[in-house]
Design brief:
Layout: H1 2-71, H2 77-80, H3 90-100, E1 103-113, E2 116-128, E3 141-152, E4 154-155, E5 166-170, E6 175-178, H4 191-194, E7 195-199
Antiparallel strand pairs: 1-2, 2-3, 3-7, 4-5, 5-6
Length: 201
Amino acid sequence: MRRRLGSDSGQTLPIYIWMTGILLFVAFAFFAFAQAASARNGAQTAADAAALAAAQDARDELMDGLELAIGEGEDWHDWLAGDEFTGGGARGAADTLAAENDSTVIGFGPTEVNGYPGFRAEIETLYTVGDSIIPGTETQHAKAEATAILKPRCDVAPSADSKEVVEFDCDGGESFEIDPEDFASGDLPDASVLFSVHLAD
């Protein structure tokens, strides 16, 4: 009887070691996938931030141009429609937000989605996925891209005279009037009332 128990114990030990090795491998594999997922999420956050920053910079340019055009009695309809920005500062804004998220912009440019202007940003993380049981992850950087668009939220009657009092009807039921003859800097509502900035689907 003692001889049989000793034999069973000797057979169980290799199986236990083998199972422990498998469990450790699975645990390290899950950890590696978690590392990769975390890097991808960080990259996507950086790409989203960069694209949104570029579109918000363009919105600021539209607001400045619209305010100047109204104040000088010029035709401001194209500014309100979101057609006049150059996007000169958009790349700089995207670079700044990417850097704040420990990433760098590797691809950037204007784009259009469903007729609305926007910007596409592609980034690469400055950090790597990290050491894992999967070879090469210690030097692999995560990449992601995002597109943000700029959408006008207010309309005016097509026949509206840019030199007369004009009523703006905006999304959400908001409305306001602008009198070019009695207009001062700061009379326009918040930029978010006139233009929305959001990630493209």
